[in-house]
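Hi there. Long-time user, first ticket. I'm pasting a complex I've been working with (about 326 residues overall). I'd like to know whether the download I got is complete or cut off, because the file seemed smaller than I expected. Thanks.
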Amino acid sequence: MTGWGVVGAGWVARDHVLPAVAADPAAHLVGVHDRDPAALDGLAPVYADLDDLLAAPGLDAVYVATPNHAHAPVVERVAAAGLPVLCEKPLAHDVPTAKEMVAATEGLLAGTAFDQRFHPAHEVIAQRVAAGDLGVVTTVRIVYGCWLPPDWRTPVGGRDNWRVDPARAGGGAMIDLAPHGLDLTGCVLGEDVVDLVALTATRVHAYAPGVDDTAVLAGRTASGTLLSHHVSFSTADPLPRRRLEVVGTRAQLVAEDTLGQDPGGTLTRIDATTGAAAPVAFDTGTGPFTRQLAAFGAAVRGEAPWPYPLHRDLALHTLLMEAACP
Ligand SMILES: NC(=O)c1ccc[n+]([C@@H]2O[C@H](COP(=O)([O-])OP(=O)(O)OC[C@H]3O[C@@H](n4cnc5c(N)ncnc54)[C@H](O)[C@@H]3O)[C@@H](O)[C@H]2O)c1
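Hi, the file is complete. Here it is re-exported in full:
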């Protein structure tokens, strides 16, 4: 059994992490800490002091779900306690802090919580790419957006909109959404983007100066597969806004409504010779957070490797943070 502690009891913790702990028969919750006592309402067991949680009997691993700027201070305290840590994306609000955080976890089991790696549809895509079903993969095209006005609040716990505060988020739509697509591209292709440029814009929302509500990114892997990635906080939620296409010479795979936190969506294979489109089966009942939590827990218990080193996540974080064109 893996005993979990959760730090930061907001939206992602309440709606996704705590249900994933509850769903894993090999996991149990040791406790939850938040610096805001109100955020702990209705949860149990709770710890008002982080050090008390870190010293709790049976604690094997910690999930960090604080806002971006508050990842590093918490991760560094978890690492000082010698515990494995799974921390939300992005690593940090800037590159120097991310580097310090990764250095602090040296020698420990540590990961970034890129849940979308674990969506069953995305794992089927990775398997088909590796098996050659798509032929030569030329391009990955990703659209990932939502509607996030300046006064937006997280569905639970949100006191203010830290996501568009550059001091706490590190940017706007691009730093919030594009880390997923960059990570996912590497996961489905089996090789990472190594060149990246980005154009950002603030077209709709009156955020603080310099905070983007839209970005278009262009990337390239070492072998020459291209990435085209559009992220936005300015796409109305009823519009099509979650789409992943992997374009190959023999076939194209199209995943719709799989990007995000929930199970389900659709996966379609379009044959390059006939043009015929056929649904591709995957497990639509299991969510990415559930699978991620179980996978990290298995690594904590030494039953399976954690194949996503934090140094790789840091390289992609650095690439992203340095990608924006003036
Ligand atoms: N993987 C995903 O799909 C996904 C989805 C949503 C959010 N996230 C990430 O999860 C993190 C949290 O996002 P959210 O939407 O849950 O935010 P939120 O604002 O809903 O919750 C954050 C919580 O952290 C607490 N907190 C802040 N600083 C703290 C500190 N130093 N110590 C302890 N608690 C602290 C706040 O009081 C709040 O309760 C962010 O990094 C975000 O990027 C990831």
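A couple of notes from our side: Residues 7-13, 33-36, 39, 65-68, 70, 74, 88-89, 113, 115, 154, 157-158, 162, 261 surround nicotinamide-adenine-dinucleotide (CB under 6 Å). The domain at 116-286 is CATH 3.30.360.10 (Dihydrodipicolinate Reductase; domain 2).
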